[in-house]
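Researcher: Re-running this chain for the archive, since the previous output was lost when a drive failed. Same request as before.
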Amino acid sequence: MILFAYDFPHRKTQDFINYLRYYNFKLDAVIGAPKQLLKIPEQKQHSGVPTIGLHDTREMCWKLKIPYYMMGHNSPECLEYLDRIKPKLGL
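Model: Regenerated structure tokens:
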């Protein structure tokens, strides 16, 4: 399984990696996309859900021994990588 994530501290990315580990799903690799400016309106309401702190995705993968690659999800480099490894599932 390949996880498409972000190359910066991001709560949903962190939570998803932890959920996959908790439920014993094996991550073959994480592809972290660099931060991009999105043309969407700023959120007026933010979640009040407390977190235990954010961790850098690359560092988290390194500590968990999950292969990590930083590349844009739609980049030619990413498409070549996926074509080479032929993952069964990408999330």
